[in-house]
Amino acid sequence: EPGQTSRAIQRDLLPTEDRWILSRLSRVVSSVSRLMEDFQFGEAQRQIYEFLWGEFCDWYIELAKIRLRLATQGALSPLPVLVYVLETSLRLLHPYMPFVTEELWQNLKRRLPSDWQAGESIMVAAYPEADAKVVDPEAERVVESVIEIVRAIRNARVQYKVESSRWIG
Predict the structure, then answer these.
(1) Is the pLDDT reported for residue 4 higher than 90?
(2) Within 13 Å, how many C-alpha atoms sit on residue 12's CB side?
(3) What is the 3-state secondary structure (H, E, C) of the chain?
(4) Tens-place pLDDT, residues 37-71
(5) Cβ-proximal residues to 71 (8 Å cutoff; 6+ apart), any chain
């Protein structure tokens, strides 16, 4: 249907950045679940925040934008992974921000196939569970190396007062 997104993740074809974000999500879900069981709610919330802003928003979405532009040329779309990570993250964050996550979840749900979620509300959706099969230390190492290189370049540009719009050849 127009305006709707496929949710099928083709795991055997995933590029490194998809394997990285799925691996990081699984690790965060596992860690947050453990922390919540130990009543360490503040640390659990901090880890969710760090994952959402520091990894998903700052890095994965930016990497996915490149592939979205290339998807018209036959590249594997990042949309299924984007949707999966966003939806899982909303369920993970729900105990901390119930009204915001419900609103976002309902908006996401309207754009997905009708068989996507059985529940009518994020409140009755299953809490996320870690998936050990997607943990990928090699993908994490590769993407973290790329992140460090980009940070080093950005820091050098700031240190030498080079405008971000200037191309360096």
Answers:
(1) no
(2) 0
(3) CCCCCCCCCCHHHCCHHHHHHHHHHHHHHHHHHHHHHCCCHHHHHHHHHHHHHHHHHHHHHHHHHHHHHHHHHCCCCCHHHHHHHHHHHHHHHCCCCHHHHHHHHHHHHHCCCCCCCCCCCHHHCCCCCCCHHHCCHHHHHHHHHHHHHHHHHHHHHHHCCCCCCCCCC
(4) 999 999 999 999 999 999 999 999 999 998 888 87
(5) 77, 78
